[in-house]
Amino acid sequence: MSTEYSEVALKEKLHRLTNHPDSIQSLSSWIIQNSKYRESIIRVWSKDARKESNAARIVNLLYLANDVVQNCRKVCPELKDHFFPVLESVIKHSARNPPPEIERVLPKLVKVWREREVFSQSQLRRLDDALLQGKSSAAYPTPVSSVPDLSKNNPQKELLHEEVAKNCQEILISLQRLQAPPSTEREVRIQLATFPESISCPEMLQTIRDSSQAKEVLKHNEAALPLITDYCKRLGEEMLERRNLQQLLDNLMNNVRSCVEYHEKMLRDVKKKEDRLKSDLVEVEKAFNSLPDLNAEASFISRSLPALENLFDMGILEKIAEIEHEISRTQKNKATEYHLGLLKAKLAKYRQQLLEPSGKGGGKGEGFDVMKSGDARVAMVGFPSVGKSTLLSSMTNTHSEAAGYEFTTLTCIPGVINYEGANIQLLDLPGIIEGASQGKGRGRQVIAVAKTADLILMMLDAGKSDQQRALLEAELEAVGIRLNKRPPHIYVKQKKVGGVKFTHTVPLTHCNEKLIMTVLHEYKIFNADVVFREDCTVDEFIDVIQGNRVYLTCLYVYNKIDQISIEEVDRLARLPHHVVISCEMNLNMDYLLEKIWEYLALVRVYTKKPGNAPDLGAEDGIILRQGATVEHCCHALHRTLAAQFRYAIVWGTSTKFSPQRVGIQHLLHHEDVIQIVKK
């Protein structure tokens, strides 16, 4: 999809468009890359969508528009604004006596746009009206009740004016070509009249009596042939040009008629708005006249005015946005580090309040999480349509539906991977969107399940990897998930009295005592012991105070590598914690499974009964975490075995010689054999 833009190239790509997710997403990426030609792109897409009679093709075009308007919001929001008026018109056109396929797709798209807040509420209401008007009208649609944007930057207005201007320019060029048409060339007609009548009348051939007359006629025919051939060719071109001019004039008339109808509609809406404003003005005047006389009511002045905080009480989301804006525009230096530390502490508090469940009672919601089973849990996190469901279906025996539209998966779907004798639970979570940490698109439920995992697979589209990775990391960071980090070595213990005692065992470059006190006071902590055993930042200190952070290992999985260059695949594969795969072509799947086992850090230990051979079967081992001791193995076998433990005999790489008698704190390695002796 790296070809340069032209209308011919776009029409060819639209003609080759299929319902496969890769086909839709590839063309969507190409359109967004060429968004500077948005007027031409929207015009070509609209014409194809209106003239198409095949229902499946119309559905593909609608899915393409859906992918474009959702993915261009960060890169090129102007493309979405220009797309909306035409998208509204096409939906209204498609909703008139639609086939079953289109009738199912249209409400579903509008629902997705509403859940993901792709368009504003007024625009969504216009789309709902378009669906209703398309069903109830087979002729011209009634005007939309909402007042249109009458600014100079109205996309629909600009599109109509550009169409008229383009038609006028094309008509002018056509008229210039017809200034001296071949049909008016008098010299050619005079020259043709000088030839004898025999060259234009086949009946004259019957009057030829001898070879001399035949040679003379042949001579005249050969002399006239080039002139007649050229003249007929130019006459044919003139006829085609006149037909083209007629078509251009028809298009101009249609566009002018559309402009007139559009401006008449604007005038009607302006008149409605004027009438509404007049009625509102009358109501305001009545309310103003009904106000009490302040001079007569002295007691009214003595009443206390409401607090300013109550008048401008912002929600948590508005407060978070305000603090983030303040942090972004504050220069980072020694003078502002205390102010920034205070802002970060407030931001962490508000985010925690946002994640806490409301105290109000509510109805029983639909279940989302699944029971944790197996030896480890792996959660797949990513944007919609990056290949999570396809990966689950290819690595497990569980089928997860995959389709060409986003939000195919709406619940948590579990699967089980059997590898090295371990049962690894793999979760296919619904795609999350920007703002998921604030609850958009069931984001809180998805991230809550991700917190319970032992490993996170961050599924990324190789063609959009950098943008998607930054957004996903920001969303997980906002809800307290720290990827590929270890907990900071900071000790904080609250006391009842004694004030704050701050010590550190290493030199600090990011924090000092004053900054620590500022953060503690923001959390209403006035008595505590604080010990820094490593050089940590203020953000890490806030994480320790919050006490609800989850530190998880993360593996970045780049799917659809068959759609990018070899150089880009090589660059991504060399980055730390990265794996490149292609689910569709089954590329590098075995390596991904090996990396999952490596990042889960599991060890398999075999048991042996006294006097018997060890149980080395595929299902006989005990799966433990790396760094597990003999005590952990005892707890895995039976809850009372550790209390009855006397000693253990171990065969394997964890001992200096095999067998070796060890104690309960002995570290076990992968594929060790252990025999436990009780008291």
UniProtKB/TrEMBL annotation:
Q: What InterPro entries does the entry give?
A: Beta-grasp_dom_sf (IPR012675), CID_dom (IPR006569), DRG (IPR045001), ENTH_VHS (IPR008942), G_OBG (IPR031167), GTP-bd (IPR006073), GTP-binding_2 (IPR031662), GTP1-OBG_CS (IPR006074)
Q: Name one Pfam family in it.
A: CID
Pinpoint the OBG-type G domain residues: 376-601
Q: Care to name a GO molecular-function term for this sequence?
A: GTPase activity
Out of the domains of life, which is the source?
Eukaryota
Query: Keywords, A to Z?
Result: Coiled coil, GTP-binding, Nucleotide-binding
The UniProt record lists the TGS domain at 601-678
- Which stretches are annotated as coiled coil? 235-287
The CID domain covers 2-135
Give the protein's recorded name: Uncharacterized protein
Organism field: Caenorhabditis auriculariae
